[in-house]
Specification:
about 220 residues; mainly alpha; elongated
């Protein structure tokens, strides 16, 4: 059974991406070694992982190969002398992505009401239908948000109502510990005038009366 076609896209799962990187890196280094041995080629491979870790392979010496590469660029003086091989499939993918991006930008402008001069009747009808569909989606989303806000408001009201009910129940429980006749009927204290049994003026002892009266001699001296 043959292997399935692998999609050329970034692997989102971190663990799978790391495993794939390790396997592909080992395969790349193996192919470079085989090419150097079978074809007697001088090969240098430099790989940086997504975490910044360096991996390299050189058939002879990395410094020697890099120096030879720099010297080749200096002596050539023209980048056209250096052969840059880009897979044809990758070129087609990049070109397709560029065209798709340009098409999306144009559609975005047309939806905003710009660059409509080159459109015919059929294209305008399609654009109108697309606009109406977008408007319906916008209204549906708006109604959904309003419903969610109403639900949140109802939940808050129910929560406040439950808290008030619990508070009233606690107050009733506390009031049940005190009988009604033990509580004052009025919030004010009543004042009752209590007559005094003894008057301090009428019942002064005789000894105090004599002490309080001034002597005759002292009176004469004060008058003199």
């Amino acid at each position: 059974m043959g292997r399935g076609k692998i999609e050329m896209a970034k692997i989102e799962n971190v663990t799978s991406r790391q495993v794939t990187f390790s396997k592909r890196r080992a395969g790349l280094m193996k192919k470079a070694y085989e090419l150097s041995v079978l074809c007697e080629a001088e090969i240098a491979v430099i790989v940086f992982s997504s975490t910044g870790k360096l991996f390299e392979f050189a058939s002879s010496s990395m410094d020697q190969t890099l120096a030879r590469y720099s010297k080749c660029l200096e002596t050539s003086g023209n980048s056209a002398d250096v052969v840059h091989e880009v897979p044809k499939k990758e070129v087609q993918v990049v070109q397709g992505l560029k065209e798709e991006m340009a098409d999306l930008k144009m559609k975005n402008k047309q939806i905003l009401g710009k660059d409509l001069s080159g459109l015919g009747l059929k294209e305008l009808q399609q654009l109108e239908q697309l606009f109406n569909e977008g408007l319906l989606s916008l209204k549906d989303r708006k109604e959904q948000l309003l419903k969610e806000q109403l639900e949140v408001s109802r939940e808050k009201e129910q929560k406040v109502s439950m808290e008030n009910a619990n508070l009233r129940r606690k107050i009733e429980e506390l009031q049940s510990y005190f009988p009604q006749n033990a509580l004052p009927e009025s919030g004010y204290l009543e004042y009752h005038d209590v007559p005094r049994k003894y008057s301090p003026i009428k019942h002064v002892p005789a000894s105090l009366e004599t002490d309080c009266q001034p002597d005759a001699e002292n009176t004469d001296m004060m008058t003199a």
